[in-house]
């Protein structure tokens, strides 16, 4: 990681973690390995009650309301014969599941871990957990795989449009690294479509987005310029997308991003360069974008309000 350009690393050790042989992984053991094998000075911080006693975030407050309301409805709809249930969230949807079914699955995880059948343990945790774990392993890598299938390699572009919103940089980081991990190229476009017209396009590598996840706003820069606003016309945008060999374009933003994608899609009959995958990722602190329950930036905006209210 240091050779790749990272100045520091954070290791999180879960309580009760064990290795593939069933031996306990403690923070002291991890520290000893890092200092002995890697020769890096290491410090240990135990969170403990700091995690449990914090002011609830906006998301936890909303989630608590949803759970509480669902529990009331479950009680009202229950009969003396209704099995005991658990109010859960799966795929961002509140669901009612059998208590015994949940208990059995939890016990199955313990049995699988004890027998060192980690694939079965992962399967018992569910598809969402498995997908999140796979994503985490890819994003945490120091660099993408060395071998790339040149015959199936594409060049993607990414930009932000409209007002900045927290989470944009984390989204860009994930997009860049997942694309590189799959063997594709990524061209970052600074300052939206006006930046594209000015030639502000850069090839991104793995470390280009290092540390971006925690940064606010948009490190690519963003504005409200539409493709049709570029001098002299949409033809300029088409010519530049072709020049940079962009075979798929992702735009992160709010209503302006939606309009940008719509303008390009409606002009596909005129310009072959627009006949590529066009994607919009909703990002707005207003959380009022069509087609999605939650937009990037909305939770951070609510947390800022919660924090201000807490101190005043």
Please characterize this protein's 3D structure.
- The chain is an alpha/beta fold.
- It has eleven helices and seven strands.
- Strand 1 and strand 2 (93-98) form a beta hairpin.
- The longest helix has 20 residues, at 58-77.
- It starts with 26 loop residues before the first helix and ends with a helix.
- Assign the structural class, choosing from mainly alpha, mainly beta, alpha/beta, alpha+beta, or little secondary structure: alpha/beta
Order of strands in the sheet with most strands? 5-4-3-6-7
- Give the CA-based shape: globular
Q: Count helical runs.
A: 11
The residue fraction in helices comes out at 40-55%
Strand content: 5-15%
Please describe the biggest sheet, giving its number of strands, its sense, and whether it closes into a barrel.
5 strands, mixed
Report Rg.
Answer: 24 Å
Ends apart, CA distance between termini: 42 Å
- Low-pLDDT segments: none
The helix-strand sequence is HHHEEHHHEHEHEHEHEH
Mean pLDDT score, rounded? 87
Using DSSP, what is the number of strands? 7
Question: Topology, please?
Answer:
Blueprint (H helix, E strand, L loop, with lengths): L26 H12 L10 H4 L5 H20 L7 E6 L2 E6 H16 L3 H8 L1 H13 L15 E7 L6 H14 L3 E5 L2 H6 L3 E4 L29 H10 L4 E6 L1 H12 L11 E5 L15 H14 L1
Parallel strand pairs: 3-4, 3-6, 6-7
Antiparallel strand pairs: 1-2, 4-5
Helix pairs in contact: 4-5
Features:
globular; 11 helices; 7 strands; alpha/beta; 5-stranded mixed β-sheet; 312 residues; single chain
Short description:
The chain is α/β, with parallel strands linked by helices and 312 residues long.
């Amino acid at each position: 990681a240091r050779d790749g350009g990272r100045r520091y690393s954070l290791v999180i050790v879960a309580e009760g973690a064990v290795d593939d042989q069933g031996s306990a992984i403690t923070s002291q053991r991890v520290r000893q390995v890092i200092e002995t094998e890697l020769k890096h000075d290491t410090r240990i911080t135990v969170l403990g009650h700091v995690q449990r006693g914090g002011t609830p975030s906006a998301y936890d407050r909303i989630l608590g309301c949803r759970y509480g309301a669902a529990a009331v409805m479950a009680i009202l709809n229950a009969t003396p014969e209704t099995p005991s249930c658990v109010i859960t969230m799966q795929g961002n949807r509140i669901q009612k599941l059998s208590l015994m079914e949940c208990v059995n699955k939890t016990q199955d995880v313990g049995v699988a871990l004890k027998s060192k059948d980690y694939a079965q343990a992962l399967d018992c945790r569910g598809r969402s957990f498995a997908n999140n774990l796979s994503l985490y392993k890819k994003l945490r890598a120091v660099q993408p795989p060395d071998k790339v299938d040149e015959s199936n390699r594409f060049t993607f572009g990414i930009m932000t449009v409209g007002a900045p919103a927290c989470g944009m940089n984390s989204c860009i980081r994930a997009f860049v690294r997942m694309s590189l991990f799959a063997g594709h190229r990524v061209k970052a476009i600074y300052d939206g479509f006006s930046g594209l017209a000015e030639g502000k396009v850069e090839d991104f590598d793995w470390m280009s987005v290092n540390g971006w996840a925690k940064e606010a706003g948009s490190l690519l820069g963003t504005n409200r310029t539409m493709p049709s606003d570029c001098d002299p016309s949409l033809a300029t945008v088409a010519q530049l997308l072709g020049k940079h060999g962009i075979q798929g374009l992702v735009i992160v933003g709010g209503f302006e991003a939606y309009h940008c994608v719509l303008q390009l899609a409606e002009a596909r009959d005129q310009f072959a360069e627009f006949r590529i995958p066009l994607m919009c990722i909703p990002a707005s602190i207003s959380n009022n974008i069509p087609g999605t329950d939650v937009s990037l930036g909305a939770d951070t905006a609510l947390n800022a309000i919660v924090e201000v209210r807490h101190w005043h």
